[in-house]
Design a protein that fits this description.
The complex is a heterodimer. In chain A, the strands form 3 sheets. In chain A, strands 1-2 form a two-stranded antiparallel ribbon. A two-stranded antiparallel sheet of chain A has the order 3-4. A two-stranded antiparallel sheet of chain A has the order 5-6. The longest helix of chain A has 11 residues. Chain A has one domain. Chain A is of the alpha+beta class. In chain A, strand 1 and strand 2 form a beta hairpin. Chain A is built from 5 helices and 6 strands; from the N terminus they run H-E-E-H-E-E-H-E-E-H-H. Chain B has 3 domains: 198 residues, Aldehyde Ferredoxin Oxidoreductase,  A, domain 1, CATH 3.60.9.10; 166 residues, Aldehyde Ferredoxin Oxidoreductase Protein, subunit A, domain 2, CATH 1.10.569.10; 163 residues, Aldehyde Ferredoxin Oxidoreductase Protein, subunit A, domain 3. In chain B, helix 1 crosses helix 2.
């Protein structure tokens, strides 16, 4: 989740996500987005809610979206030396690249519009929580506060559960 | 190609044609990007002695090489031209998200030439460029309106450079806006854009900026953020921001008050940082910056980012305006109309002074809000008193036989530091490469804030000003923001990544000096005025009679000597022309 109150619209999460996964900075191909209205400073963040939503998994006719247990353990420290967060156990929804046929059903139903066709390959791509060290969280350095936070939202209950 | 895209887009408004061409990488190597590359292109593209209002005078939009990566603060965009106000170079920088978007679309720069027959908006989505008629649709729109319209009509994620009604009416100090509140403020780029019939440029970029090993670079920049950027001296901008200067400058006796008649504003408590903290709602950031220095405020039915210190000084204290709501509204009006606040505040304060001295009745009075709040709108429409105010400070004061009341250098109105209380600023203003500007050398830092230099002497200030200017010139090539107090060592670290080899600080000092000298050559070519400041700063008769700077005058002789010393230290002749030896030493590839 991206907190619309804390988010400053710096797009570091999109930049880090796209560079980490795609080898270069390309926020249009990130796996999360912070949509900014500069006039009103209204910021709407869009992240994958994993099993807290799972519409992509429901819509997939080929069982190509699978839930995997994961532990998210953000590394690193804030500028003031505090730990970024504690580790959380939960589930991440992964695209099974052997089964995905790029049928596009998931693109249509995603509640936050964060699953898309891969630019270079005919399969879907989405947030995979970066093997437990989400780069969006690492690079969200809004002073001492995180705008991208895994624990905050009620809808994200899958990750909040053990 | 890493960092750079290696491509600029030449936008010919006369023929409604846009052509990509290779970026000159020899120049990129010598001048890096940002200010350096801008000046080299201006040298090439501006016909010598061209009338700045003519179609042949280009408008250049330039990125820094680190825009579109996660290098902190380096997303700023640069708009440059031969200024219609000063007739010399003007490089104006703006925050926001435009420069990264240009890079994602595939461009390091735009060169905008010619003049459109009818007003247009140019939209750019990667390699697709369209010229969209603006009349009856976009013309006349205020900043918020044009941005919203282009996000609706062209792309929800479009980044926009626009002019407001002020630019469309070619008010000389009209500015360019982006992300609503960010401005390429000084020098009249908005007026030039208005003359060219260009209402706005909207860009959407879906491409990639590469840096080599992306994961390693990410980690590297993360470390640099923690060690060098997110430290107290930079984070002060997040916590209080530039409004913190209001109280400091007033206490030091150098905030311009009532058209520079004194240096301390008795109502400063109403418009100082504490007062703004009370009405602050949130912070906003430019792309790729974690400092998030943009302060969002709400008061009197108006909400928005700013005002920054310069606006508090020139539109607040300088107009005798200690009413925070009125100041917010004036700032908001200038935002929406696309008018630079420093020049707007200066001209309104001058008109107040002329009114109160009985020279000409503009109906404007220091501290009186009603007419003050009408002024930006009247100026933008050239209506009523606006028709005369639109002349600018120098011409307006001259028209009424009171030239000494206009506080400007080379026809660019002065920012918020009275040199009578910080003598070094007289040298900074006099030798600035774009006229009355504090962003090239800011002696206030050491004369007032740290106090390591005496404010009432010019001794040794020439060397200090030169050092500031060269460091800023280098900083403006990478377009690192001023709010990252990065020194040559940190810039060298980053340029090492750019040039893929070890870069020494000394090499970057040379780049800075090279860029500064190239700017001086351009200005000399275009007939720059003599380097000086208004008599109010140096003549005994205008010394302050109260406050910390009371009784202090720089003296014409001392100023002249300091400027001579400056020329000598710079390796320029007595007329301020860079010598052949200096140009050869710096490897500058052009000559007068």
């Amino acid at each position: 989740m991206i907190s619309s109150k804390k988010c400053t619209g710096c797009h570091m999460c999109e930049l880090a996500c796209s560079a980490f996964h795609g080898g270069g900075f390309q926020p249009s191909r990130a796996r999360l987005y912070a949509d900014v209205n500069p006039t009103t400073a209204t910021i709407k963040g869009r992240t994958c809610l994993q099993t807290g939503c799972a519409k992509c998994q429901e819509a997939c006719p080929n069982d190509a979206i699978v839930a995997r247990r994961t532990t998210v353990a953000p590394k690193g420290l804030f500028a003031n030396g505090d730990k970024i967060g504690d580790s959380i156990d939960g589930y991440v929804l992964m695209v099974d690249e052997d089964k995905c046929t790029n049928c596009g059903e998931c693109y249509d139903v995603c509640s936050t519009n964060v699953i898309h066709e891969h630019p270079d390959r005919e399969i879907a791509f989405k947030c995979d929580l970066c093997d437990g060290d989400p780069q969006c969280i690492v690079f969200c350095q809004n002073k001492y506060v995180l705008a991208v936070d895994l624990k905050v939202d009620k809808a994200d209950r899958a990750l909040a559960e053990a | 190609m890493d960092f750079y895209k290696g491509t600029l887009l030449r936008i010919d408004l006369t023929h409604a044609v846009a052509t990509p061409e290779p970026l000159n990488m020899d120049w990129a190597e010598k001048y890096v990007g940002g200010k350096g590359l801008l000046l080299r292109y201006l040298w090439e593209e501006v016909p010598p002695n061209v009338d700045p209002w003519a179609p042949e005078n280009p408008l250049v939009v330039m990125t820094g090489p680190f825009a579109g990566t996660n290098v902190a603060t380096a997303a700023r965009v640069l708009v440059g031209c031969k200024s219609p106000i000063t007739g010399i170079l003007n490089d104006s920088y703006s925050g926001g998200s435009f420069a990264p978007e240009m890079k994602f679309a595939g461009y390091d720069a735009f060169i905008i030439t010619g003049q459109s027959k009818e007003p247009v908006v140019v939209t750019i989505r990667d390699d697709v460029v369209t010229f969209v008629p603006a009349t009856g649709k976009y013309s006349g729109m205020k900043t918020s309106e044009i941005e919203a319209a282009l996000r609706a009509d062209f792309d929800a994620n479009a980044k926009v450079l626009s002019i407001g009604p002020g630019g469309e009416r070619e008010i000389p100090w009209a500015c360019i806006s982006t992300d609503q509140y960010h401005k390429a403020g000084r020098g009249g780029h908005g007026a030039l854009m208005g003359r060219k019939g260009l209402k706005a440029i909207a860009v959407r970029g879906t491409g990639m900026v590469t840096v080599g090993d992306a994961k390693a670079f990410l980690a590297d920049m993360y470390r640099m953020q923690g060690e060098n950027v997110l430290i107290p001296e930079n984070l002060a901008q997040n916590e209080e921001g530039t409004p913190v200067l209001a109280q400091i400058m007033s206490d030091a006796g150098i905030i311009p008050t009532r058209n520079w008649s004194t240096g301390t504003f008795e109502d400063i408590e109403n418009i100082n940082s504490d007062s703004f903290l009370k009405i602050r709602t949130r912070n906003r950031a430019c792309t790729q910056c974690a400092v998030a220095c943009r302060q969002f405020h709400e008061a009197g039915g108006v909400a928005g980012e700013g005002p920054e210190y310069e606006t508090i000084a020139l539109c607040g204290a300088n107009c005798g305006m200690g009413d925070i709501e009125a100041l917010m509204k004036f700032n908001h009006a200038c935002d929406e109309l696309g008018l630079d606040t420093i020049s707007s505040g200066s001209v309104v304060a001058l008109a107040m002074d002329l009114t109160e001295k009985g020279v000409e009745d503009f109906g404007l009075h220091f501290g009186e809000a009603e007419a003050y709040l009408q002024a930006p709108g009247l100026i933008a429409k050239r209506e009523g008193i606006g028709a005369k105010l639109a002349l600018g400070a120098r011409a307006l004061a001259a028209k009424y036989g009171r030239p000494e009341l206009a506080m400007e250098v080379k026809n660019l109105e002065l920012p918020g530091y009275d040199a009578r209380g910080a003598f070094g600023m007289s040298l900074a203003y006099a030798t600035s490469d774009r006229g009355g500007c504090h962003m090239r050398a800011w002696t206030v830092g050491d004369e007032i804030i740290t106090g390591v230099l005496p404010p009432d002497s010019l001794a040794g200030k020439a060397a200090h000003v030169i050092d500031n200017q060269d460091c800023q010139a280098m900083k403006f090539t990478g377009i690192w923001c001023d709010f990252w107090a990065a020194g040559f060592d940190q810039m060298a670290l980053l340029v090492s990544r750019l040039w893929k080899r070890e870069v020494a600080e000394e090499e970057l000092r040379t780049v800075g000096e090279r860029v500064w000298n190239l700017g001086r050559l351009f200005n000399l070519r275009e007939g720059v005025e003599a380097d000086t400041v208004p008599p109010k700063f140096y003549a005994e008769e205008y010394a302050h009679t109260e406050g910390p700077a009371a009784g202090k005058a720089i003296g014409a002789g001392a100023l002249h000597d300091a400027i001579e010393e400056y020329y000598t230290l710079r390796g320029w002749d007595a007329q301020g022309v860079p010598t052949e030896a200096k140009l050869a030493e710096l490897g500058i590839d052009v000559r007068l």
